[in-house]
Amino acid sequence: MLEQIDENPDVPVRAVQEQFQRKYSIGISRYKAYRAKVRAKKQAEGDYTEQYSLLRDYANELLDKNPGSTVKIELETGNPRCPTRQFKRIYVCLAALRQGFKSLGRDFLGLDGAFMKGPFPGQILTAVGVDCNNGLYPVCYAIVESESLSSWTWFLELMADDLDLHCNSNFTFISDRQKGLLPAISKLFPCAEHRYCLRHIHENMKLQFKGKLYKDKLWKCATATTIPEFTTAMDELKAFNKKAHLWLAKIPPLHWCRAYFSGRAVSDMLLNNMCEVYNAKIVEGRDRPIISALEYIREYLMRRIVTVLNVIDKSEGLLTPWATQQFEDIKKEATFYHVQWNGGEFYEVSGKPNHARVVNLEKRTCTCTCRRWEITGMPCRHAVAALWEMGATGGRVGALESWVHPVYTMERWKLVYSHKINPLNGRSMWVKVQSPITITPPKHHTPVGRPKKARKRSAVEMEDMALTGKLTRKNTKGKCTKCGAKGHNIRTCKGAQA
User: Fold this and answer.
1) Where do the domains of the chain lie?
2) Which of 189, 265, 486, 498 is the right S-S partner for 108, CB 3.0 to 4.6 Å?
3) How far is Cα 31 from Cα 244, in angstroms, rounded to an integer?
4) Cα dihedral sign for 264, 279, 295, 415?
5) 429: left (phi over 0), alpha (psi -120 to 50) or beta
6) Per-residue pLDDT tens over the stretch 159-175
7) Is the torsion defined by CA of 459, 463, 464, 466 positive or negative?
8) CA separation for the pair 377, 434 (Å, rounded)
9) Angle at the Cα of 147 from the Cα atoms of 47 and 92, rounded to 5 degrees
């Protein structure tokens, strides 16, 4: 700045000096404000380094106030004579969540990992289920050094012990195909059904085959519930683009197509949304010291149970609110179908030409050839039309809701959330655990520059932002906050408020 002044005599020296001093004082004041913010945050949330030495005390308090819970701490291997050991991993499964998940009766879990944002490296691994009202139900979580075969295997082994899973368990998982997770599941649960999140598949597909048509054809293939429908959808994709068909055919359809899903999960989910929602809820806790982060998660889970209980108290009927709405939509669709009865347990239900489906209403093996009833546990439109015909011809039907899988009932929903997470005392009330080894933070080399806390965007998102400066909303339909319909907003809404 001063060299520029010498070269340009027209610029007054005093004005430039005053400007330089003003900017310098602003920088100093900002640095002071930053230091004050760091001190206040340290006082409120705790010290990042110190909290590692208190992990045993925290685990002891957690187990004391929540009997039956599981807390495992693993340290790095080192010299046994050394009084300190570096932290490696911690796993937490609260007894209330484990008991609630077992009461749910839905063998379905989403697995995912998210970065810790503090000065020490790490990943939060989570296992999240789906409750009776189609809401997320976290089961267990862990903070590990990274997503690897070793860390995922360790996490899944502890989870299997808590949930009584064995190598021959017919369980269902859904994930984003994280590094190390696929071989870990194949090794520990060879009989398990492992679904791949369709959004993750589409993100990879978009790198080579862009456009809404590819997305629509991918979803048409994935949502087919029978193998003939899936084959037809794949043939359409092949006729549209042979390279795209070849790319998609390399991924076994049993991982991403409903036609190959079994009904043991009582869910037709194709997206790992429950983990995405859960990670969004705990995003603020991922920037805190380790105990503060674990407490942020526990407090959120405790609050969530109370929130769901308030919704349960206001709900009525045999089914949960979400299941009730879904079943009402199915009933409306069923009114357009024609039914032929064979005099026994079988009904031929037809709507469109050449789209007839056979429904078996024998009480022990109630099925429909469209397989939606088998996959979701909820009678499809063909089954509802057949039930109406059964009632009209003198058969015992009862309430239609009684044919829905028990996982969607209010009784089951109340049972799941009858288990409560107990609160903890403050840090000053914790019992000091006597141990000859002190836990120290993991090794970490602080990188140069300001730490990055924002989520890393995909290549497609970066490409969209390079063109417009922000993420595009192309091909998306907004939702009106007044009537709830899509395609318009509150300014152009002509309907009544919902």
Assistant:
1) 2-45, 52-311+424-429, 321-408, 457-498
2) 265
3) 53
4) negative
5) alpha
6) 999 999 999 988 999 99
7) positive
8) 52
9) 55
